[in-house]
Amino acid sequence: MARKEEIIVGLDVGTHKVVAIVGEVKSDGGIDIIGVGTSASNGIRKGVVVNVNETMEAIQRAVHEAELMAGCTVNAVYVSVSGKDLKSFNNRGVVAVQNREVTEMDVQRVLENAKAVQIPADRTILHTVPQEFLVDDNDGIRYPIGISGVRLQVNVHIITALNSGVQNVVQCAERAGLHVLKSSAEMLASGRAVLEDDEKELGVVLVDIGGGTTDIAIYHNGFVVHSAVLPVGGDHITNDIAVGLRTPKAEAERIKIQHGCALSTMVTDDENIEVACVGGREPIVRKRKLLCDIVEPRMEEIYRLIEREIQASNFADVLGSGVVITGGTALLPGCAELGEDVLGLPVRVGYPRQVGGLRDMINSPVFSTALGLVLQGCDDENETAKDAGRSRRASAKAAKAAGNGFSARIKDWLREVF
Length: 418
Fold this sequence. Notes:
Elements (H helix, E strand, L loop, with lengths): L6 E7 L3 E9 L5 E10 L3 E2 L2 E2 L2 H19 L5 E6 L5 E15 L2 H12 L7 E13 L2 E4 L6 E15 H13 L3 E7 H9 L2 H6 L1 E6 L4 E7 L2 E8 L3 H11 L4 H11 L12 E4 L8 E4 H26 L9 E4 L8 H9 L3 E3 L6 E2 L10 H50 L1
Parallel strand pairs: 1-6, 3-19, 6-11, 12-17, 17-18
Antiparallel strand pairs: 1-2, 2-3, 4-5, 7-10, 8-9, 8-10, 12-13, 13-14, 15-16
Helix pairs in contact: 1-3, 4-10, 6-7, 6-8, 8-9
């Protein structure tokens, strides 16, 4: 059984299901996946908790399944936050460093200065993501410690959320017997799991199309420069199928997953599907092309909204890597091809990466957010270990300096006596 300190757990509380992934930290700082659990949930709508008990029970089921597979007990988790109430903006902070080398404390001061913005009382800052540091007139600096100058500046991307939205998700996890180490915006977690570093450098749009929302994050020069949440997702496609084919919603979801296609041109006229009818009547046979004629316009609408968000961000001209789509809806055949037609950019489907262990079990866009939370947790723990190491080295240096000073005083005293 793995030791508690070696375990990192990501908990994705989504509209349709809760996903728990257990990762074990390797000696080289990497991650092996050792447990996966999923559970259907009806307690979330458009990323917002609407039923605490149902959400809590879904969390318990998913975590218990992951625990059994991993052979360990889960006590603490990193959890995702989504919903149309997530808002973001860019800001900057400036502090004086008085013509000396920038220290770690200076970096903390300038980040706190960047966070000192007025936001409504019912909102909280979820993330403050550094984009670049500037020392005097030198820009594009990623690690300013040790650089000499008079003024230190940082440009940041700030994501805020409703206090109630975050608290409700945390409350559900705590009622399930878990301690929440950190809450993370869904688009950042998914981006951590599926994006390559060179894509972030050249400019890329991360699009996570979930059940109730579509989460967007735009990266340029390696960092997030814009993020947004659209209140549309796979559920809207399902609802259209239910109405168009006159079938229950659960059956519409099944049909979408098994037979759906985002491009009707990819489907032939002779393909048929069986559709269950409302009220227990006998199933009927429909053309698969009819299903795709329902799915394609809704997917095109989602892409049009994404296009509008990209244009509003003012970063549409620096997207050298195009678009990466992930989330359950990205599994629809033709989804990437339709995206290229609508957006005029290269589009690929993002699959989880950078892990070992049970990687085949999570090799689906459905698991992107949960895995991203695990990777973010690993990043945090590695950074904490580095900070502890720097603190120990600083303490040792100070102790050595103090010891040298004491030795010098002893020598001076001995010279005076003898």
